[in-house]
């Protein structure tokens, strides 16, 4: 596995892959790699791509300096997992290469409205400006590629799709299924901050999604069930909503069909997300 820190070398590597008639499979990450990331690497590998994984903790998507400071960094483990998962090139760009003016404000920002202002964007102002800006830069440096994003961060996936559509990047977005532990908890780097008791409480997210997926009901009933199950598990609910799977607009009382349930909440001060498809009855 080649490890690259220089942007010019990163760009040259991707160009060399395409010159050989192969496809670059870009898997963006912020490190603290786990089995969910490994699954995304394998999806890219199974499609025959040359897997280029990036590790960059992007400060522009954190609105809270303390949250940024607490974000786990495990470089040795990341290298080992990436190598074992078939990553061909691991890119670890320097902060001053990605954002030369940091910690001053970066003059250029990509904003996606209103998609990036809902849910996570509403609770974490500027978050998706940071996400969209860094992803645009990853695409600009890498060039034409397939890019793999996990469905666990479903709103992020929607934002990136909109970014590609609006700015005409030569990038195919490939969604990767949510990876869960044996109890059903969606894998996340933030899970490492939970105590055993906290992990048990956090299962209320996936249990709420499973419960609403069992029976076709109105969106209002499903929202009520989502919130009730989460609260029964001691989760401080940030939101529990049923939305259109593309626009993330809340589903109306008379809508029906397959939609997306989005849930988020706090356990032991840790913000956790989950989502899943649900069938809504009109």
Could you explain the architecture of this structure?
40% of the residues lie in helices and 21% in strands. It has 2 domains: 2-176, Rossmann fold, CATH 3.40.50.620; 189-275, Pantoate--beta-alanine Ligase, Chain: A,domain 2 (2-Layer Sandwich). The strands form 2 sheets. The chain has a 6-stranded parallel sheet. It has helices at residues 7-19, 35-46, 65-70, 75-84, 95-98, 120-123, 127-142, 154-167, 196-214, 219-232, and strands at residues 2-4, 24-29, 50-55, 89-91, 145-150, 171-176, 236-243, 257-267, 270-280. Helix 7 (127-142) crosses helix 8 and helix 9 (196-214) runs antiparallel to helix 10 (219-232). It is an alpha/beta fold. Helix 8 links the parallel strand 5 and strand 6 (171-176).
Main attributes of the structure:
282 residues, alpha/beta, Rossmann fold, Pantoate--beta-alanine Ligase, Chain: A,domain 2, 2 domains, 6-stranded parallel sheet, 3-stranded antiparallel sheet, 10 helices, 9 strands, globular
């Amino acid at each position: 596995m080649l490890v690259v820190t220089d942007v010019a070398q990163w760009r040259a590597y991707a160009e060399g892959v395409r010159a050989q008639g192969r496809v670059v499979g870009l898997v963006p990450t912020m490190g603290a790699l786990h089995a969910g990331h490994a699954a995304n690497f394998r999806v890219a590998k199974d499609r025959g791509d040359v897997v280029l994984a990036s590790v960059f903790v992007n400060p522009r998507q954190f609105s809270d300096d303390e949250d940024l400071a607490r974000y786990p960094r495990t470089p040795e483990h990341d290298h080992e997992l990436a190598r074992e998962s078939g990553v061909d090139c691991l890119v670890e760009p320097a902060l001053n290469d990605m954002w030369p003016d940091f910690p001053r404000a970066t003059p250029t920002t990509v904003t996606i409205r209103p998609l990036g202002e809902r849910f996570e964007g509403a609770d974490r102002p500027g978050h998706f400006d940071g996400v969209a800006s860094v992803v645009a830069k990853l695409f600009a440096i890498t060039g034409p590629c397939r890019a793999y994003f996990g469905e666990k961060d479903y709103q992020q996936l929607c934002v990136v799709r909109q970014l590609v559509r609006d700015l005409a990047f030569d990038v195919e977005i490939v969604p990767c299924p949510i990876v869960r532990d044996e109890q059903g908890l969606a894998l996340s780097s933030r899970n490492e901050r939970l105590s055993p008791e906290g992990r048990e409480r956090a299962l209320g997210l996936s249990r709420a999604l499973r419960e609403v997926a069992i029976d076709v009901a109105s969106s209002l009933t499903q929202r009520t069930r989502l919130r009730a199950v989460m609260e029964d598990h001691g989760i401080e609910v940030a939101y529990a909503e049923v939305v259109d799977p593309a626009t993330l607009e809340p589903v109306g009382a008379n809508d029906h069909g397959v939609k997306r349930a989005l849930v988020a909440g706090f356990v032991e001060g840790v913000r956790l997300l989950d989502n899943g498809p649900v069938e809504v009855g009109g």
